[in-house]
Amino acid sequence: MIYDIIVIGGGPAGMTAAIKAKETAPSASVKLIDKNKKLGKKLYATGNGKCNIANTKLDLSCYSSANEFFPFQFVTTDSHNDVMDFFESLGVSSYDDNGYIYPASLQASTIVWALTDRLKILGIENSTSEEVLSIKQGKDGTYIVDTDKGGYRTTQVILAPGGAAAPKLGGSDRVYRLLDDLNVRFVKPHPALCKLKCHEYISDMSGVRAKAVVRLMCDGEEYDHERGEVQFASGYLSGIAVFNMSIQCIDLMETGKKPYIELELVPDISDDMLADRMRRFAEVNGRRRVEAMLNGIVNEKIAGYIIKSLGIKASEAAGLDAADITSICDMLKHMRFNIDGFGSYEDSQAASGGVDTLQLRADNLELAGHRGLYAAGEYVDVTGKCGGYNIMWAVISGMRAGESAGKRIKDDQN
Ligand SMILES: Cc1cc2nc3c(=O)[nH]c(=O)nc-3n(C[C@H](O)[C@H](O)[C@H](O)COP(=O)(O)OP(=O)(O)OC[C@H]3O[C@@H](n4cnc5c(N)ncnc54)[C@H](O)[C@@H]3O)c2cc1C
After folding, report:
1. How far is the CA of 152 from the centre of ligand 1 (A)?
2. What is the largest distance, in Å, between two alpha-carbon atoms of the chain?
3. What percent of the chain has pLDDT over 70?
4. Taking the C-alpha atoms of 287, 292, 296 and 297 in order, what is their torsion angle to the nearest 10 degrees?
5. Angle at 368 between CA 158 and CA 189, to 5 degrees
6. Residue whose CA is closest, atom 36 of ligand 1?
7. What's the CA-to-centroid distance between 162 and ligand 1, angstroms?
8. Could you tell me the distance, in angstroms and rounded to a whole number, from the CA of residue 167 to the centre of ligand 1?
9. According to CATH, where is 3.50.50.60 located in the chain?
């Protein structure tokens, strides 16, 4: 048998693509293959079990790609509505938490069940615990999909196997070898949305969370900034704002640069007001410990770190001189951490890189020179920030590839 469409990967991109293909061409034979035992395994873990499916806010900083503007040919300021409408058509209402869109149940399982039930109702054949090993193209233009259980022929393939991140949930770096026979180019992948390793000794602050403006800096230039929560762990910085800087930070490291993260721990107090506050404290509470002076503003472990790293000798506030106060204020405003490493795929929420978008058609994600071969989701070199952007991309790109593959079958039938 020659299938009309084979979809590789049962994540949000692959399941959406299979559904849209079959809805567009109801008589088409569509098969979905996933190496996990169950479809949508990663989805259960998303958004802390709540599955953040989209976001109403969109600007250029929300997606990274070597081909900077490519994602915005698909994702627009209306895309969250398309994602919500799609899930509404599957019977799932949405909940908008200040722009972050979740299923109204706040349960990721709602999304998985809605997708898997629809696949079943549409009669889409799926095969789980089956890993695709390679894809080749025959002389007649059809594709040969080799798996660890055998092989299939098909006229079209939608590739949505995700990336290397989160291997326990289905991620694998083998996905980047699937197209070796077809000479498809990949942008080199690396962990993304992950913690960053810093050179400084920060173990004494382990477990502390602080609200700050987080800046990604390199050679004195600011590359990105975001206000949010930073978490200190032994040797690492993490938290959403740090995760969001990680893509660009690792890109800089890969080009031999030395990026650093700068924290502004008291963004709402000006430099002058901060120095005034310190001086007043020293006048009124001069006999109190220097740590106490800082602990009025930041966590006590951060206060201890500042005093230790600046080598402050005075134990009481009254003993601080003007230079001490200036350097303390400077550190509260520009606490610098030199980044010399990053988390592994095991603890990353995504992998950056993937299929080089310069080879993809900007209307349907079809690979140039390979009629009927599409890529979608995280497999493509498009990585979103935290906040629902990756699932939104997976669903939107899956829709587009699925609809296009379905339409091709319909057109060929007529
Ligand atoms: C802990 C965690 C939390 C996250 N939270 C969010 C969130 O709240 N919002 C958000 O937008 N994003 C979130 N993400 C990112 C998001 O989950 C992914 O970007 C998204 O799932 C990608 O969808 P996909 O369909 O492209 O790939 P995946 O979801 O990775 O699915 C790919 C599927 O392909 C299968 N596969 C791989 N290789 C093969 C092969 N050779 N043969 C057959 N099958 C194969 C895998 O088993 C997998 O099921 C989170 C990620 C993690 C790890």
Report:
1. 24
2. 89
3. 100
4. 120
5. 65
6. 161
7. 5
8. 10
9. 2-190+353-413
58 lines ligand 1 (CB under 6 A): no
Between the alpha carbon of residue 167 and those of residues 173, 239, 320, 388, the distances in Å are 9, 21, 52, 20
Looking at residue 71, what DSSP letter applies? G
Residue 132 CA to ligand 1 centre (angstroms): 16
Beta pairing class for 150-159 and 2-8: parallel
35 CB less than 6 Å from ligand 1?
A: yes
Is the CB of 387 within 6 Å of ligand 1?
Answer: no
What six digits make up the tokens of 286?
């001069």
**Tokens at 116, concatenated:** 């898997």
pLDDT band at 413 (very low <50, low <70, confident <90, very high): confident
Rounded Cα gap, residues 377 and 355, in angstroms: 10
Write the pLDDT tens digit of every residue in 278-294: 999 989 999 999 998 88
Q: Which atom of ligand 1 is nearest to the CA of 389?
A: 11
Ligand 1 atom nearest residue 41's Cα = 49
Ligand 1, atom 27, lies closest to the CA of: 162
| Ligand 1, pocket-test mutation among 349, 386, 399, most atoms within 8 A of CB | 349
Residue nearest to atom 52 of ligand 1 (CA): 349
Mutation to probe ligand 1, out of 42, 134, 246, 382 (largest number of atoms < 8 A from CB):
42
Strands (E), 246-379: 260-264, 335-342, 350-355, 373-375
- 206-215 pLDDT per residue, tens: 999 999 999 9
Topology, domain 2-190+353-413:
FAD/NAD(P)-binding domain (3.50.50)
Closest CA to 63 of 344, 387, 403: 387
Rounded to whole angstroms, the Cα distance separating 278 from 323 reads 12
Q: Please write the tens of the pLDDT for every residue from 370-387.
A: 999 999 999 999 999 999
Specify burial of residue 320 (Cβ count, 10 A radius: 0-12, 13-18, 19+): buried
Model confidence pLDDT, tens digit, residues 102-120: 999 999 999 999 999 999 9
389 lines ligand 1 (CB under 6 A): yes
Cα(358)–Cα(351) distance, integer angstroms: 18
Residue nearest to atom 11 of ligand 1 (CA): 388
